## 1
Amino acid sequence: MSHIPSLVDVAWLNANLANPNILVVDTRWYLMNPPQGDLEYADTHIKGAIYLSIDRDLSAPPFEGPGRHPLPPPARVIETLSNAGIDSSVHVVVYDSAGGSIATRLWWLLRYYGHTAVSILDGGWQAWQAAGGATSAGIEQRAARTFVGSPDPDQLVDADTVEEARNRDDLVLLDARAHERYTGAVEPFGPRAGHIPGAVSMPFAGNLTDAGTFKSVAALTERYATVGIPTATHIICYCGSGVTATHDIFALHLIGRHARLYQGSWSDWSSAEHRPIHTGDQP
């Protein structure tokens, strides 16, 4: 397969939509109303797209692993991806309605299992609608294929690793949640409010333009330079439960930097009473 762009626009997808080895996946999902994504997909979606749910397909049940959205066991991931119609010849294009912050979970998961032929649709569902792209209704499926892959341990860290590494001079720990959750002003889900001591606030929304597309590589490079990324040897990203942190990981990937995901994120860290927390802004 030729070079796979990490980010594709509506014009690219429209030109390639009929290719049988392109699989479009709708991952629309809403934190405060999870079933809404399924309903919106069934009502209308990009023509030919299948739907994968963050809760049902891309996560194990809450706290059956670290945090509220732990990764499913490998056998289940392979079954899900095979049933979705993904094998080594398939280029997956993922979209959502949240600036890519949900879609990047599937982008990350596929790459975690060694499948690098995956792109994010820049601007997502809103951009497709604005361009008058072809849509369908109802539930679509693709013929099953055989997905082959295994997890790459270098992509993931646990709470103990974060605890050991968070004060290292060569590591940057990024918190992708909204700033008010980072400071502890609000916390709608976790048992404790605040952030992991030593973490830097880097809300994923800052990776996007006002139009909801990703900022340029130059603008993203400048943004991450403000938190010491150029000199960091190691980068770890976390969020509420390991979903939107993948947006920061994706943005870093666009500028040529590798970051690891703290899978359990704040839902895992804040549930352990012995883990230290910090409130307020960073020093």
## 2
Amino acid sequence: MPINYIQEELERLKREGLYRKLRRVEGEQGPTLILDGREVLNLSSNNYLGLANHPALREAAKEAMDRYGCGSGASRLISGNMTLHLELEEKVAALKGTEAALVFNSGYQANIGIISLLAGEGDLILSDALNHASIIDGCRLSRAKIAVYPHCDLEQIEAGLKKAPAKTRKLIVTETLFSMDGDEAPLVEIVDLAERYGAMVMVDEAHATGVTGPNGAGVVAKLGLVDRVLVQMGTLGKALGAFGAYVAGSRELRELLINRCRSFIFTTSLPPAVLAMAIAAIDLSVKEPQRRLALWHNCRALREGLKSLGFSLGQSQSQILPLIIGDAEKCMDFSERLLGKGVFAQGIRPPTVPPGTSRLRITVMATHTHEHLHHALKAFEEVKNENCKM
């Protein structure tokens, strides 16, 4: 009976320490949260610049609803292509330094749609082993041959490109700033290899958008690769504090996606309030570089503090600090002990990360204060000492 399968699967997840539950957040998304009825320090948010509750975003959303209403009413190709969609796309293209941009409803929809359009049966996709689930699913949907290379392994990328027949369409896809490890891809070298072997490059800038590069344009802009990367995808709901996603590139790429990308074509478009929030967030990201400066200051302070306590944070180069525990149950126990001391650092387990690499994914915000970080380090030290005594 199907019901037996459901019960058995839930029991298996509990036995293996992989069972998940939703936590209830009340009020605003900020450096602290009301989590399940209790105020805690928030070290688990992607709201890196602290824009999710900014007054400018609130006002933009209200004004958009007053002027344009609540819903968009249809898909973009029917009657849902509104003025704000086009305005946001102009803002994104200007930020990214590209000819054009196209807005998607989510990062997941963008990745599955773009990848399955650019590659198909008989083609080759080279995908980093630590790429996001949406990239993995986009690769699967494409029906192309998928070569998963070890994390940031340039030798294996080149080996895969060499093996591919000359006329095979080849696509290399990678995150620029990896969401669970906080390190950057060796993008200059990847682009060099792509050009040498006639491959396309697509990058996911979800966790770099708003955070790194000129005006928060991302890793591609920071490295001066805008004209050499075919597809830049990113999200509007992390550092920019709004919702939705974008792809930035050439005008021809935009036109192809409008005509052929199923995850763009067959969905109701984003509503006016969401679009207006994203526009306001991009404006703030450009006008207030001090937010990025505060974020990087807090990153350094928390990273150095955790390392001084003896914690390893891998190869992180960013606001994402992975504290690897290994075992899933031990990871969640550490997370719960921190929560008991008023610090929320979510444990991350398979399948989000590879087996044996469960970790606390600690994230920093520009709006964390010195007192917040001191509280966090004290809690980490206490939990570490408690574990040593066990």
## 3
Amino acid sequence: MSVIRRLDFNADIGPWAFRRLECRSVADTMALMDEYSIDLAAAGATPGITYRNCHAANEELAADLAATPGASERIIQAAVLNPVYPGCSEDFRRCLDDFGCRVLKLYPNYHGYLCWRSESVELCRMAAERGIPVMIVVRVEDERFHHWQMLIPATPLGDILKLVEVVPEASFVLSGASAPEAGQFLQATAGRDDCMVELSYVKSPFTAVQSIVAAQGSDRLLYGTHLPFVYPAVSTEKIARAAISDAEKAALFSGNACRLLGLAG
């Protein structure tokens, strides 16, 4: 791919335990990407959020990617792992060496551990050694829409910031954060070019993106859609319609993500 105009840093592929998603396969995802002019997406395995053994979901997604023509040029697999699950270090190695994963995606709230627990710290250090950014998910869905028997609170921002402080050598991406949470994270990590925020959950006010850019600059913000949980047009339009420069929009849509992943834009 010669030019990457839109790189979605927060996509998911596979079925969700609590409601039917119309887009569940790699082929479905690529069709949706085509519909919304998304050139490249970093995607994790959705079932890994609720599987007891996350790595089984990584294996399923890797098999789907391998079986789908053209997928290797459109989708970067993100490794969904639970640091406290037995054998996680080996699963991480397999994700990178066997599946070509280039992002580590963590769900502390769903998997039930503190961000700064020793196993989590060690996994993030392993990611830093391999040059892999660590994506910490604050929430998957609005807490008001959770299944009544599985109410999962958001990952506390303070816990995430403690992990960032403990592992300064790692690159971090905050995912699923509201506008206030995004602003607080960026403020707390000022001066850290390798600490970024993907914008899929920055919903309101309508001017939230331009307000964050005005306050924190545009070089640490990433386009993320959270497809298929959310229609991609939502994230696209809140950047496209923001009162920021074309150069800033280009940075958000793909430039910052390409820099983080070491890709040619």
